[in-house]
Amino acid sequence: MLLLPFQRGPTREEIIARARDYGMVFREEVVPFAPSAYQSQSTPAQEKGEDPRGEVLVTIPAGVGLEEIAAILEEKGVAAAAAFEAEVRRQGVTQKLKAGSYYLPAGDIKEIIRRLTG
Question: Is the pTM of this model over 0.85?
Answer without folding.
Answer: no
